[in-house]
Amino acid sequence: MRRGRRNGLITTAAAVVALVGLASLQPAVAVGPFAPSGRVTVTPAASNQFAGTLDEGSGSREFTARHGAPPDGGSGALELRTPGDGDKRQYVTDEVAGPLSRFTDASYWAYRDPASSSGAMPSFAIAVDVNGGTLEAGDLYVLTYLPDRAPAGTWTRYDVGSGTYCTTQQIGRVDAYRQCRDGGEQRTLSDIMAAYPDMTAYAAGFNQGGGDAGLVSAVDLLRVGGRTYDFEPG
């Protein structure tokens, strides 16, 4: 993305919410359809462009070894807590910006604390420009992947590349997660790419909250294209 577009993106971001902060970040330059590649460790001191774009309420986000990690996931993970119905925590990176084809083999691992009063799992979201090019008002959409529920106390791997997504236009204070959870139409990435051939991803990552009161979860080993993100306490 050309640096000259940054001010325009920030202006657009001011008009929308829920992952809109992604649009004001500087996406990584794409070297190829699946770049960047390799395994990186994300810690409080080395974020790899991850940030909370829309944190609301009294929830929390913490790197911790409290829940262990999935296989080959090191010693810890990223914990998300949303104690109230209106609490929300997100953690997304623009380092994965590029064509939607980058996400066809995407995956992540998630864990639900047995003490959680909610049975939900943290979702995955991709912020996109529906027609590519310059991001204008009305162009920003969010693709939301809702994971199936899984047993508490167990790490579960989700193949989001082969899953289905809701497509939500971000206008005003629209909550893409709530709309999807409440019955939004779900389609595969292949169907979405066929319907919107110029759609371009700006960033992607995790979302928790907006109706998931009492959920304590953890996420780890996010894979997009050839890059795997391992979340560790330090």
Please give a handful of descriptors for the protein shown.
234 residues, mainly beta, 8-stranded antiparallel sheet, 7-stranded mixed sheet, 9% helix, globular
How would you describe this structure to a colleague?
With 234 residues, the chain is mainly beta. The chain has three helices and 15 strands. Strands 2, 5, 6, 8, 9, 11, 12 and 13 form an eight-stranded antiparallel sheet that branches. Strands 1, 3, 4, 7, 10, 14 and 15 form a seven-stranded mixed sheet that branches. A hairpin with a 1-residue loop joins strand 14 and strand 15 (226-231). The longest helix is centred in the N-terminal third of the chain and has 8 residues, at 6-13. Residues 1-32 have low confidence and may be disordered.
Quick overview:
The chain is mainly beta and 234 residues long. The chain is 9% helix and 36% strand. It contains three helices and 15 strands.
Range of helix content: under 10%
In terms of DSSP E residues, the strand content is 35-45%
Classify the secondary structure makeup into a structural class.
Answer: mainly beta
Helix tally?
3
Annotation, overall tally of beta strands: 15
Distance between the termini: 31 Å
Uncertain runs = 1-32
What letter string, H or E per element, gives the SSE order?
HEEEEEEEEEEEHEHEEE
Q: Could you say which overall geometry the principal axes of the C-alpha atoms support?
A: globular
Mind telling me the C-alpha Rg? 16 Å
Largest beta-sheet characterization: 8 strands, antiparallel
Mean residue pLDDT: 86
